[in-house]
């Protein structure tokens, strides 16, 4: 049997994750035509990664891949159905709505066996007024549900709080954020941290085991709620006059502050400390 750098190939005849550098991996994104998935795909393609976009509609994913290839000049992005995406990829990212996850992973269980699987799924719903609320998950979190459905895979949780709009914006070349990576397999956690850091500016942080994922997923609701409140308050202030602007001492606007609120210091794994999200003190600049 052939080998890579002197190491034996895996049972499938392909190199194992340990034998590949992050740049050699093929990344599959299930639901890669949705907002979050497309944003991640865009960043990884621009970083030179090989990416397969998965979708229920192979035609839609192929069109998305062609558009991105034309925009970036990359020949390392392709689009296909979710089944082939799971088959081709070394690392697979789940970027589908929570309500679609169980059926999808049940169908792909055999194709995903032995692979690192990354859940960025947030189990939430919106009420009649558009407000978000967290959904109860019997397993404790969307990531833990994924692990229960994929017993032969190494499931990690990551990328929950990278805003889709920010990921997709080519005018923002560097994203100064920390991505919390949770998982029980050290090798998979290391791989996903490296995958996060393939995005310029992003820092991957080992935030503990998969049993912590529910805390991280739940923070998404708090961040969305706070962001909407701050946007509404800024609109109200703008209507009152241009002499007050919601900025902090670094000059970042409130929505940027919210997006960067979650970093390594926000989750103390040992005692399950998660900060209570409260209204930040208003910082204003008064112009003469």
From TrEMBL:
One of its GO terms (biological process) is copper ion import. Gene3D superfamilies: NAD(P)-binding Rossmann-like Domain. InterPro entries: NAD(P)-bd_dom_sf, NpdG, P5C_Rdtase_cat_N, STEAP_metalloreductase. One of its GO terms (cellular component) is plasma membrane. GO terms for molecular function: coenzyme F420 binding; cupric reductase (NADH) activity; ferric-chelate reductase (NADPH) activity; NADP binding; oxidoreductase activity, acting on NAD(P)H. It comes from the Bacteria. Residues 26-123 form the Pyrroline-5-carboxylate reductase catalytic N-terminal domain. Residues 230-259 are annotated as: Disordered. Keywords: Oxidoreductase. This is Pyrroline-5-carboxylate reductase catalytic N-terminal domain-containing protein.
């Amino acid at each position: 049997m052939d080998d890579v750098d002197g190491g034996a190939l895996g049972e499938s005849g392909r190199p194992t994750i340990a034998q590949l550098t992050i740049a050699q991996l093929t990344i599959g994104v299930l639901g890669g035509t949705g907002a979050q998935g497309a944003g991640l795909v865009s960043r990884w393609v621009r970083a030179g990664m090989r990416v397969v976009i998965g979708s229920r509609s192979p035609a839609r994913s192929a069109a998305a891949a062609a558009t991105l290839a034309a925009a970036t000049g990359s020949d390392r992005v392709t689009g296909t159905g979710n089944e082939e995406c799971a088959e081709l990829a070394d690392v697979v990212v789940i970027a589908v709505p929570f309500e679609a996850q169980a059926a999808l992973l049940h169908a792909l269980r055999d194709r995903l066996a032995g692979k690192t699987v990354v859940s960025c799924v947030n189990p939430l719903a919106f009420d009649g007024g558009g407000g978000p609320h967290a959904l109860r998950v019997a397993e404790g979190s969307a990531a833990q549900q994924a692990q229960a459905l994929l017993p032969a895979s190494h499931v990690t949780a990551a990328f929950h709080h990278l805003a889709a709009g920010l990921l997709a914006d080519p005018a923002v070349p560097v994203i100064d954020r920390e991505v919390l990576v949770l998982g029980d397999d050290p090798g998979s956690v290391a791989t996903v941290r490296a995958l996060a850091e393939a995005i310029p500016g992003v820092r991957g942080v080992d935030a503990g085991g998969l049993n912590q994922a529910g805390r991280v997923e739940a923070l998404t609701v708090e961040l969305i709620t706070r962001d909407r409140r701050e946007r509404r308050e800024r609109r109200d202030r703008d209507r009152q006059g241009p002499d007050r602007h919601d900025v902090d001492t670094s000059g970042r606007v409130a929505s940027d502050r919210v997006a960067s609120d979650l970093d390594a210091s926000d989750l103390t794994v040992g005692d399950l400390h998660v900060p209570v999200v409260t209204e930040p003190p208003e910082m204003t600049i008064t112009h003469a």
